[in-house]
Amino acid sequence: MNRIVGSHDLLLVTLDTLRYDVARELAAEGSIPHLARHLPDGRWEERHSPASFTYAAHQAFFAGFLPTPVAPGRHPRLFAARFEGSETTAEGTWVFDAPDLVTGLARAGYHTVCIGGVGFFAKRGALGSVLPGLFAESHWEPEFGVASPTSFEAQVARAEEVVAALPAERRLFLFVNVSALHQPNWFHLPGATAEAGDSRATHAAALRYVDRHIGRLFAAARSRRPCFAVVCSDHGTAYGEGGHIGHRIGHEVVWTVPYAHFLLDPCEGP
């Protein structure tokens, strides 16, 4: 990352609540082509989230602890705060002298922008202001939130505006928390009803909806210079497994998440 930070724009997309098994299946069957074309060998990497719900997971992400590969071992991190005794800060790790990655990148000359989705980014009340408050610029509107059937389209449109307004010479760290996968998501599946509620099938439909629009986000992110992108989930969610509904629990479907990082070349198509 030491050859990336300072020369590339950076994009972090959290597909909030996305389950690994659903993401893997849709990639394998060719249902998410715009995402899959950027995944190594067309497949998501299976990782473990550092937390089981949005607030805790993002606090860890912004401290440099992205989801960890599931195989045993000391896995070097992309980013890490300078921390004596760290066993996962390797030669290629970008080390920052700040309490969080966002502040570290700002001190390195990046303009930091948050486009929020779920309630922890809604800036409604003190708790919902903590995470967006890390950024120089933050955006949230009701149409970005979990109850909007067009949330991701609205978030992408705002991202396009932000990128277009930024001076070309200014490096950008753009963070987008995608709310479409989070409950409620039943409205993404044709024929589903509010009375029937959310299901694994509606969750999958929400991911297909995100895939239809994410090419625009990638195009904006790489429009000024090469961009290094991380796309992952913060946690999964249960739809009845073991009697559980939802997350903030210690269950395999919650702690196992999809992950990928890749370069977006300015010369590529969407």
Automatic annotation (TrEMBL):
<protein>
    <submittedName>
        <fullName>Sulfatase-like hydrolase/transferase</fullName>
    </submittedName>
</protein>
<dbReference type="Pfam" id="PF00884">
    <property type="entry name" value="Sulfatase"/>
</dbReference>
<dbReference type="InterPro" id="IPR047838">
    <property type="entry name" value="STM4013-like"/>
</dbReference>
<dbReference type="InterPro" id="IPR017850">
    <property type="entry name" value="Alkaline_phosphatase_core_sf"/>
</dbReference>
<dbReference type="InterPro" id="IPR000917">
    <property type="entry name" value="Sulfatase_N"/>
</dbReference>
<dbReference type="GO" id="GO:0016787">
    <property type="term" value="F:hydrolase activity"/>
</dbReference>
<feature type="domain" description="Sulfatase N-terminal">
    <location>
        <begin position="100"/>
        <end position="252"/>
    </location>
</feature>
<keyword id="KW-0808">Transferase</keyword>
<dbReference type="GO" id="GO:0016740">
    <property type="term" value="F:transferase activity"/>
</dbReference>
<keyword id="KW-0378">Hydrolase</keyword>
